Amino acid sequence: MKGIKNFGMVRSWLIAIAIVIALLSLMVSHSLVQDLSREEHGKMELFAEAYRALNDADENTDMGLVLAVISGNSTIPVIVLDDSGGIENSLNIEIPHDEDSLEYLKRRASQMRTKGNSILIYHDKSQMGRYTEVCFDESLLLNRLTWYPYIQLGVVLLFVLIAIFALLSFKKTEQNRVWVGLSKETAHQLGTPISSLMAWTELLRDRYNDDEMILEMDKDVKRLEMIADRFSKIGSLPEPVLEDVGSVLDRVVTYMEHRSPRTVRFVRKYETDAVKARLSASLFEWVIENLCKNAIDAMEGKGTITINLYSDWDMVYIEVSDTGKGISKNSFKRVFQPGFTTKKRGWGLGLSLAKRIVEEYHNGRIFVKSSELGEGTTFRIEIKK
Question: Is the pTM for the entire model greater than 0.70?
Answer without folding.
Answer: no
